[in-house]
């Protein structure tokens, strides 16, 4: 019985954990329960973004930022959402690593120029929404 419990724990952690792309990039799978406090984006219609879709997202998002911002040095969480029939990726960027970064979608209060978030429409190659700093 102990073996089944350990096996269940390992499988559930594998299935319901984020996918680590790099030390600073984590993707939530479609099975992850994620609350997004950003302009009513809590959709039950989710997908797990591929590495190619994350690269596309980064390229689009990076084009919105000042060249002075070193995008690659920010910690990033990604959530795939389908809205209005389009594939979109919600992305959080933070210049500091949050304690729960690898387990949860970080949503700081405030954050100044250290924090960005946005919604990238990867079907249309555009930024749907973009915010610098978090709400206080």
How would you explain this protein's 3D organization?
The chain is of the alpha+beta class. It is 21% helix and 31% strand. It is built from two helices and seven strands. The protein has helices at 2-15, 51-64, and strands spanning 19-22, 25-28, 46-47, 75-83, 86-94, 115-121, 126-132. Strands 1, 2, 3, 4, 5, 6 and 7 form a seven-stranded mixed beta sheet that branches. Strand 1 and strand 2 (25-28) form a beta hairpin. The radius of gyration is 15 Å and the shape is globular.
**Global outline:** globular
* Rounded Rg: 15 Å
Give the mean pLDDT.
78
Residue ranges: pLDDT <50 for 5 or more in a row? 4-16
- The structural class is alpha+beta
Q: Please give the alpha-carbon distance between the first and last residues.
A: 48 Å
The largest sheet is:
7 strands, mixed
Number of contiguous helices:
2
Number of DSSP strands?
Answer: 7
Q: What pattern of helices and strands is seen along the backbone?
A: HEEEHEEEE
Question: Approximately how much helix is present in the residues?
Answer: 10-25%
Proportion of strand residues:
25-35%
Set out the fold topology.
Elements: H1 2-15, E1 19-22, E2 25-28, E3 46-47, H2 51-64, E4 75-83, E5 86-94, E6 115-121, E7 126-132
Parallel strand pairs: 2-4
Antiparallel strand pairs: 1-2, 3-4, 4-5, 5-6, 6-7
Summary of the model, kept short:
With 136 residues, the protein is α+β, with helices and mostly antiparallel strands.
Which features characterize this protein?
2 helices; single chain; 7 strands; alpha+beta
């Amino acid at each position: 019985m102990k073996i089944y419990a350990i096996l269940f724990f390992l499988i559930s952690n594998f299935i319901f954990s984020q996918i680590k792309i790099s030390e600073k990039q984590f993707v939530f799978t479609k099975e992850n329960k994620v609350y997004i406090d950003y302009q009513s984006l809590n959709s039950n219609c989710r997908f797990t973004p591929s590495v190619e879709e994350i690269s596309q997202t980064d390229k689009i998002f990076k084009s919105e930022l000042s060249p002075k911002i070193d995008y690659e040095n920010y910690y990033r969480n990604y959530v795939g959402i389908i809205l209005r029939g389009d594939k979109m990726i919600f992305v959080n960027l933070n210049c500091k690593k949050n304690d729960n970064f690898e387990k949860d979608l970080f949503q700081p209060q405030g954050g100044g120029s250290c924090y960005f978030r946005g919604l990238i429409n990867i079907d249309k190659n555009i930024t749907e929404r973009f915010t610098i700093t978090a709400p206080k």
